[in-house]
Amino acid sequence: MADMPSDISQHCPGTASKDAGKASICTNCPNQMICASGISQQPDLTADLIKRKLSTVKHKLLVLSGKGGVGKSTITSLISRSLALNNPDINVAVLDIDICGPSQPRVLGVIGEQVHQSGSGWSPVLTDLYKTLARDVFNMLTDIYIDKPDAQLRGMIKQFLSEVDWGALDYLILDTPPGTSDEHLSATSYLKHAGITGVIIITTPQQVALLDVRKEIDFCRKVNIPILGVIENMSIFVCPNCNNSVEIFPALTGGGCVMAKELNVEFLGSLPLDPLLAKCCDEGKNFLTEIPESPTILTLQTIVQKIIDRCEKIKHPSEIDTT
Amino acid sequence: MLEGVKHVLLVLSGKGGVGKSTISTQLALALKESGFRVGLLDVDLCGPSVPYLLNLEDRDVHQSSDGWIPVFADKEQKLAVMSIGFLLKNKDNSIVWRGPKKTGMVKQFLTDVVWQNIDYLIIDTPPGTSDEHITVMENLRNVKCDGALIVTTPQAVAVDDVLREVTFCKKTGIHIFGIIENMSGFVCPSCSECTNIFSAGGGIALSKMVNVPFLAKVPIDPQVGKLAETGQSVLVTLPDSQVAQVFRKLVEELTQSKEA
Entry's InterPro entries (chain A) (predicted)? Predict the structure, then answer.
C-alpha cells in the first residue's frame, strides 16, 4: 500500500502485487530493484500506526454507495445522531473522507469550524452531541488539494486515519465519496488492517442507482470486508397536502429489498422521503429533535437498533475472519 | 483526436446522483430529434449509467483498424454511444482501478473511438473533481471543447459540491454554458400540489454567486424516471410535459449560441 507516483505506466502491477519488480514492464522502471527485493510487499508501517490509533474505537462502520446523491451523508448524520441521542453513555464520531465533496460540516451544523492541533494529533470538531471531522474544515487546503489526485488523496486519508485523536469511542462512522475509487481502496485497506466492523450500503429504489450499488457490493466482496446491510433511501414520498404516497424514484426492479435478497445481504429498511429532512440538513439542524414525529425517524430507529445488534454480536471486530 | 466532431459539450457536477446521466441522455436524444448527429461518451468508470438508460446493456463495442466503433442507439445511426459499461462482462462487476490504469482508460476513450462526422459529442462525467476529471480535461485541452453544462439539485449540500466544480472549471479554463437545476420541485399526481422535496432555489443562487447563466429548472417527474431503460426521448413520449419543454428550450439555446 505504498504510495506510487502519478506518472507511472498504466501496466505497473502495483508495488504491493506479487508481480512487483517481476513483470515485463518493470524492466525499464528505475524502481525495479526496490520492488523486486520485496520491501514494498511488507506491511505498511502506517497501517500499523492506524491500527494503534484506532484501537480505542470499538466499532468502525463504513457508509458506502456506488451511487452519488443517494443520501450517504444524510444517513451517516442520522445514524450517528440517533446513536448519540438514544444512548447517552456511548461516544460517537463521524469522519468524512469525501475529499472532493465533503458534506458533513454542513449537515452536522459545524460549517466554518476549525480543527485544532494538539500534542496527540488533530482534535475533532465537537457538535452539540458528538464529534465530527471532515476535510472541509481545512478550508485553506482546498485549493491545494482540489486538483491533486491520487498520491495526495491517499496521503490525506492516511493522515485522517492516523493523526486524529479520537479518544475512547464506541462508534466511528466513516462517510465516503461515491464510487469504487482510490479513496475507497485506501480507506478499506487501512481499516481492514485496523479491524472494520462492517459496511452499511445506501441505495435509492430506482434501477439506475441499484446498478452502481451492485458494483459496490462486488467491491466489498473483492476486498473482503463484511457488509452489515443495505438501507434504501428516498423510498416513498407522502404529499404533505393530500397525504397520498408517491414513488418518486420508481422501483421498477423491486428496489433495494429485492437486490439485497438477490445478492444475499441483509436488508435493514427503507427510509421514506421527508422534504423537511433536506431542509434540516441544509441548515445543519438535528432532524431527530426538530421533527421527532416524522415517519422517517420511526423507520430510522429500527434500522439503528438492527445496526447496534449486529455490531454487538461481533464482539471483537478486529478478530473477525474476513477471508 | 475527435476528428469529425463539430462541438463538444461536457456535462459536469461536483455532486453525484443529481441526474448528470439522465440529462446527458435526454439532451443527446433531444438533439437527435432535432436532426443532429450526436455522440454520447460516458466516462464514468465506476458507475456507468448510460447503457442502462438507453437500453443498450447487452450491446458490444467492435474493434476496427481505426479504433473502437461506438454502439448506435437507433437504426438511422444518428446517436452513437460509448461507455465502459459495454466493456464489462457482468453488470455487477466493479472497476477497482488505481489512478494510472484509470487514466489510461479515459485517454483511450477520448482518442480511440471512431465517431465519424457528428455534430455534437456529449461527454457524461463521473461525480467529483477527481483524477478521471483531470484526465478528461487534460486530454480535451487540444480539442475545441465548447463548454460545460453544470448540473445541480436545489439543496445547499449539493450546491456546496457543485461550487467546487465551478471553481475547477474556472481554474482549468473551461467555458461554462450555464447551470441546470434538476429535481426542482415535485408535482403530486393526485392533488397537483408542488413540493420542494430537496428545498428550492439553490441553482439560481449558485448562478448568481459565480456569475454563470442559469439555463433551466427541471422538475421531478416519475414518468421521466420510467423512460429509463426504454431509451426514448422525453420530446417524443411526453411532448407536453414540463421536462420536454425544458429540453426543447435547452436545445434551442445550445444550437443558437453555436451559430451566433
Answer: Mrp-like_CS, Mrp/NBP35_ATP-bd, P-loop_NTPase, YlxH/NBP35
